[in-house]
Amino acid sequence: MAIFGNLRNHPHWLETAYQLVEKIFRIADPLIRRIGYKRVDRWMHLPEKLSKGMLFDCQMCGQCTLHFTGMTCPMTCPKNLRNGPCGGVRSDKTCEVDPEMICIWVEAYERSTKMKVYGNEIHLIQPPLNQRFAGKSAFINELCCGDNSAPPAWKPTKGTEILL
Amino acid sequence: MKENRSGSTLEGLLKSGQVAVTAEVSPPDSANPEDLLKAARELAIVSDALNLTDAAGANCHMSSIGACALLAHEGYEVVMQMTCRDRNRIALQGDLLGASAIGIKNVLCLTGDDVTIGDQPETKRVFDFDSIQLLHTAKTMRDESVFLSGRQISASPKLFLGAAVNPFVEPIDFRPLRLAKKIEAGADFIQTQYCFDIKRFQDYMETVRRLGLHEKCYILVGVGPLRSELAAEFLRTKIPGVVIPDALVNRMRKTPKKKQREEGKRICVEIIQKVLEIKGVAGIHMMAYRQEDIVGEIIEEADLLPRPDKEMIQ
């Protein structure tokens, strides 16, 4: 498992891999649509759970925000904060809930500063989680209904201009 | 930050450019309204608005909305604290409407302390929203007159929206940027965590000013008296997010036990005076848990009395 821990500290490699995988899915989208999103979702489930589980401790929320959050999964935060960190981080950077664990948002911020492609996306506000997507493949969710994941009246924000 | 959208006295006061003083009230472990009113009465004389905590520290007390309703009915200006720990989005949106209908005009949107910190750690956490999503939802309801589903609200909740920030903990560099996010999400005013480390707060405010954030919201600095050296140690080791520099704890330690409460009070007055000199600070937020009796003296010694007449504001 040490190798995965090590990989997490190279967020630039991970974001490049992420970019590549996303591109492949976009290209394959017409084919996936023809086969049926539901069917491909069933095939994807285990491989996605295993790979992202090992790499990011993925909780299968079905709405991957990894590239927004320094390639660090926000669902591993005990409060599931999509827009962290909370104000309870301890002086040694550990979590207020679990003092054994470094605050994942401290890691997310540090890693995002090392990311060349998506680094600035940490300044964007994440919409609330769509619970209907939980347990399904995030890539398929993104292809079939990515635009409809946020609540209808939720206006996406642009990130304060000065920061981007 | 132009027109007063909520009709809130706190908003009117801040817009007039005067220093604001808010004070925290802990709702009682009681169903007797008199227990709450007693606590509120004295604090209301020396402050402009009362914050009612929402099961602070994940411990049960009278609900924030219930306590706010009682006090608003008596004519007090209240800030309803609202956390995402115990309610999902359906309950939160309903409570925002209910609060506004009762006459509550200020809401502080918080994520909330985790359930494991309280006396019922076996509780199921909700966290359907985080504080930023709650802020953005409240702003959407107020400004667009719709629920998140898009369904129309016939009379939108007129609210002055607040958020909390903690400039004192890691990741230090990200903290001002997170404030920017909260402002973008809808924060009109900010109440900070306890400020004991002036140096760190000055650095934070320097970045805040560089980003121009102090012109987009009103920042009230959290302050409070240390009761004793032991209380200081307890606060900084047991309460997540509270930073007290060693120098201050040593100062308390060197003071004889009997005079420690007086010294804690003096430190608090000094901190208030220092933070009010910092450009971009709009006021203070007093959190004096179980020391409410000395809040009046502190505000007086900090030269912040008398408070402006509420009838004259707007």
From TrEMBL, chain A:
All copies of the Methylene-tetrahydrofolate reductase C-terminal-like domain together span 38-128
Q: What is this protein called?
A: Methylenetetrahydrofolate reductase C-terminal domain-containing protein
What is the organism of origin for this protein? Answer: Candidatus Desulfolinea nitratireducens
TrEMBL record, chain B:
**In which pathway does this enzyme or protein participate?**
One-carbon metabolism; tetrahydrofolate interconversion
Q: Which InterPro entries match?
A: FAD-linked_oxidoreductase-like, Mehydrof_redctse-like
Query: What family is it from?
Result: Belongs to the methylenetetrahydrofolate reductase family.
Q: Which Pfam families match?
A: MTHFR
Q: Which SUPFAM superfamilies match?
A: FAD-linked oxidoreductase
Q: Which cofactor does it need?
A: FAD
Provide the GO biological process annotations.
methionine biosynthetic process; tetrahydrofolate interconversion
Recorded hits in PANTHER family, A to Z, give: METHYLENETETRAHYDROFOLATE REDUCTASE, METHYLENETETRAHYDROFOLATE REDUCTASE (NADPH)
Molecular function, one GO term: FAD binding
Query: What's the protein here called?
Result: Methylenetetrahydrofolate reductase
One Gene Ontology cellular component term attached to this UniProt record is:
cytosol
Q: Which reaction does it catalyse?
A: (6S)-5-methyl-5,6,7,8-tetrahydrofolate + NAD(+) = (6R)-5,10-methylene-5,6,7,8-tetrahydrofolate + NADH + H(+)
What is the top-level taxon of the source organism?
Bacteria
Q: Which UniProt keywords apply?
A: FAD, Flavoprotein, Oxidoreductase
